[in-house]
Write a structure and sequence with these properties.
The complex is a heterodimer of chains A (about 110) and B (about 110). Chain A is mainly beta and about 110 residues long. Chain A contains no helices and eleven strands. The chains are: A mainly beta (about 110), B mainly beta (about 110).
Chain lengths: ~110, ~110
């Protein structure tokens, strides 16, 4: 099976702009989670989508939002970008057949806010 | 929410020696504990995981132990090789919940 893919791989934006990132999960996986990775804070959970519904949400401001489509592909959006939003954004897909769900990560989108 | 702490932050070992990374967690309801390896510029990759009904799990040179009473779990790498050099992250979550709480990561350097 093809792995998790993310587009674009790199983005440069300026403060105040908005950005949309895309994630395509492993075929058959219905859950997509998003994480922000920074050198200072490490990996932090943003939110999880399952069957087009947000199932879990982390402690990020409302400027961070997401959605999931019927084919399980997911997008996340960050509005009114701040310098501190510069980070590697990773998505992870998971099947939900069992109690313990392995998550498989995509390569990430490197966002730089100037 | 869950808080996962990871020690030490950097670990240097001679090739062939063992490396041990320890993590503690705060939420007693957590019951799934994966470990990820992230090489420079690459995605985190799941290397091993353990569920709360198991105390130890091995996969070739890698093993993980879990002490639910003390709320800590550890990764053991034996016979380290240069390709083991990477950042290792521990994580915890409640079963059926895909919200992983990660530790800050350990930089492991294997010296040839």
């Amino acid at each position: 099976k093809a792995g998790v893919t993310q587009t674009p791989r790199y983005l440069i934006k300026t403060r105040g702009q908005q950005v949309t990132l895309s994630c395509s999960p492993i075929s058959g996986h219905r859950s997509v989670s998003w994480y922000q990775q920074t050198p200072g804070q490490g990996l932090q959970f943003l939110f999880e989508y399952f069957s087009e519904t947000q199932r879990n949400k982390g402690n990020f401001p409302g400027r961070f939002s997401g959605r999931q489509f019927s084919n399980s592909r997911s997008e996340m959006n960050v509005s009114t970008l701040e310098l501190g939003d510069s980070a590697l954004y990773l998505c992870a897909s998971s099947s939900t057949g069992g109690v313990y769900n392995e998550q498989f990560f995509g390569p990430g989108t490197r966002l730089t806010v100037l | 929410g869950e808080n996962v702490e990871q020690h030490p932050s950097t670990l240097s070992v001679q090739e062939g020696d063992s490396a041990v990374i320890k993590c503690t967690y705060s939420d007693s309801a957590s019951n799934y504990f994966p470990w990820y390896k992230q090489e420079l510029g690459k995605r985190p990759q799941l290397i091993i995981d353990i569920r709360s009904n198991v105390g130890e799990k091995k996969d070739q040179r890698i093993a993980v132990t879990l002490n639910k009473t003390a709320k800590h779990f550890s990764l053991h790498i034996t016979e380290t090789q240069p390709e083991d050099s990477a950042v290792y992250f521990c994580a915890a979550s409640r079963g059926g919940n895909n919200r992983l709480a990660f530790g800050k990561g350990n930089q492991v350097v294997v010296i040839p």
